Every structure is written in structure tokens, then in C-alpha cells.
Amino acid sequence: MNPKNANPLKWVPSLYFAMGLPFVVLNAVMPVLYKDLGISDAQIAFWTSLIMWPWTIKFLWSPFLEIYRSKKFFVVATQVLSGALFGVAALALHLPAFFAVTIGLLAVVAFSGATHDIAADGVYMQELSSADQAKYIGWQGAFYNLAKLFATGVLIWMAGWLFDRFRPAAASDVAAYGAAWPYVLYVVGALLLAAGLWHVRVLPAGVNAAAGSASLADGLRGLKEVIASFFTKKHIWYYIAFIILYRLGEGFVMKIVPLFLKTPLAEGGLGLTNQQFGLFYGTFGSAAFLVGSLLAGYYISSRGLRRTLFSLVCVFNLPFAVYALLAWFQPQSMWLIGSGILVEYFGYGFGFVGLTLFMMQQVAPGKFRMAHYAFASGIMNFSVMVTGMASGFLSDQLGYRIFFIAVLFTTIPVFVMSRLVPFTHNDEPKDNK
């Protein structure tokens, strides 16, 4: 197989599934794992938030990836490294100081995962034309977000299923979870190692950095130039504001929704068990996410991003209205809850690709395309991280009902901006530059 001529469908889906998996496991699955193993909420919230920093500041080392080896090299290397570290973390769960040890290991996974994101996006933008970027953006978004649904659905369901098998012979619930969760981390590690082996074969190699041309001084000069040129782009401050506001509502609800779904009805939640939680996200959520992401890609490809951006923002923010309705009415029907999750994830899958393509086609173009895309996505992650850190305090103060209503008001600015945002670069669907 010649990777240079490989059909993008052979590597785009697997590349972005492998990109999403470490991020979601660290951000959404590990808090559940630590909760099951008896760690306090305060420690979980602090440390699992802190280790996500590499995704926010990854632009700082993105220039160094431009001057050494190829983007394919970094993609494969980080997939293999992250897979191995998840396996080590699984073994470390049996240690008395497992929390400190695994947090340290996962901090390295975070750095590896953030580096993988830079290189993977670089391959995507380097190997595909603007028209093909729009054509395959749905596949990219679908499989990135499929990793989220696999992790929050299948992996959490698997932990609950294994817990039921180990519980009769275990001394306590914590001991049963301690026996179950290592197998989940082994699965994550195996998937990433398999992805690395697959991408050795099918991923385009791209352009290698010139031998002997790279140095630390080159990298530092490159970083300075990357940052300076980023902030001199036309309309950049408008673009930064748009990126921050696009996912503002999502940032507020991301950490709260799992707590809301699992909180007992008497306390304002929906009272789902871990297995119900995993089942809904792994079935209703995954199907709706995949369909929404794929449809959005072809929708944008046929009409262009400028003409579709407002409608993408509308659909993206639809889930927050669903959360508010679920909080106010607290339905006990599993069909109603599942239908709400279906609407939620279709909207999220459909709307998320709009921001991704906007950053690729309006913010990233130029001499430092890969580094500037990493910078833009870092700003996006910073917005989600900061709002997520504040969301727990706000939901405690307001209660779920008022909290989700308040989130709806935070989405108003992005509706306005999406109608007014200027486009610097041509986004016509037949643009093959």
C-alpha cells in the first residue's frame, strides 16, 4: 500500500478517533474511575482539570514539529507512547499510591495527546485541498466525537458490567471497581497501539524537515514568529472572540451533564445508573453524533461555510435547550431520556464541525498553518476549560433548572457574531486551492 495515494477514508476516520480517545478518557472517563475508587470530588476536579493544560498551550511547541522529521512520525510515535502509558496506568491502579502515580502518567499522556493533535491536523491540512477538507470534515468530526461516545458510552458501561461480575467475590464496591477498571484502560491502550500500527501503513508521510536545518534557536525564533504572525492576521481579534463564544455554552455544561444524569430525582437529576449512562451514550448518542457529523460535512461542502455558519450555530446550541427541558420536567421514561440524548448529540455533532472548519479555513491559512490551527484550538480549549472550572460552583448555587436556563443566555452573543463574522479567505465549495 502506498500511503501517498491512500484514499482519505482509509486514514481520516482512524486518525481522528485516535485523536479524540486520549482527550475524552482523561477529561470524562478518569473522573468516573477515580470516583469509583474512592477519591474525593475536590481532588478529582482539581487534578483532572490541571492535566488538561497541554491541549490549551500546545501551540508553544507546535513550531518545533515543523522543523524535525515528518508529521506522520509524530502521529505514530504519540499513538504508541500514549497506548503504552495507558497500559502502565492500568497496572498502577493496584498500587497504594495509585492516584498520584496515575495522575503523573496521565500528565505525560496529555502532553503526548496534545502533540498528536498538532501533527494530525497538520497531516489533514497538508494532504487535502480546501475542497477535500470540507468534503471530509464530516468524517473527521464524526470519528473524533465517536471516540467521545465510545469512551463515555462503551468504556463506562464496560466498567459497570465488569463491576457486577467482580462484586460478589470482592470485599467492597471499591475493591470490585479496582478489579474492573484496569481492563478498561488496557482496552484504551490496545486501541491506540493498533492505531499506531495502522497509520504506519496508510498515513501519508508528508514533507520531512530538511536534515540538519533544525536547532533549538530555530524553534524559539519560529515560536516568536508564529505568535507574532498569528496576532497580525486580518480580523484575528474577531476570530478569537468567535472561537471563545462558539463553545461557551458547551464549556459550562460539559462537566455538569454527567452529574445531572446520575443525580437522584429527589435532588434534581435524572437518576441514571452507570450502565444506563453508558448504554444511552453508546447507542442513541453515538448514532446521532455520527449522522449529524456526516450530514454537516456534506451540507457545508455543498453550500460553503459562509452560507451555513449561522444554521450550524443554531443546531450546535440546540442541546442546551434539551438539557433545560430535561432538568425542568425530569422525565422517568428511558425512551424520553434517550430521545433527549439523541437530539443533544445530533445537534452537537452537526454543529461542531462548523467551528473546526472555520479555524482551518479562516484562522489557520498562511505560512504556519499547522501551528496557527494549534493556537486557535488551544484558545478554544481554554474557553471550555475555564467555563468548566466555574460550572460546578454555578450549578451548586443555582440548581440544575436555573443553571441550564442561564446557559441558554450565554449563547446569545455567538448567534449575533455568526451573522457578522468576516471571512478573509475564499470558502466556495468548488475552491480547489
- The level-1 CATH class: Mainly Alpha
Structural class: mainly alpha
Count up the domains: 1
Number of helices: 17
- Report mean pLDDT, rounded to a whole number: 83
DSSP strand content: under 5%
Low-confidence stretches: none
Sequence of secondary-structure elements: HHHHHHHHHHHHHHHHH
Radius of gyration in whole Å, from Cα?
A: 21 Å
Please characterize this protein's 3D structure.
It is built from 17 helices and no strands. The chain has helices spanning about 10-35, 40-50, 55, 60-65, 70-90, 100-125, 130-165, 175-200, 215-230, 235-245, 250-255, 255-260, 275-305, 305-330, 335-365, 370-410, 410-420. The radius of gyration is 21 Å and the shape is globular.
Task: Report a brief summary of the structure.
With 433 residues, the protein is an all-alpha fold. It has helices at 12-36, 41-50, 53-57, 62-65, 71-92, 98-127, 130-166, 173-202, 216-230, 236-246, 248-254, 256-262, 274-303, 305-329, 334-363, 369-410, 412-420.
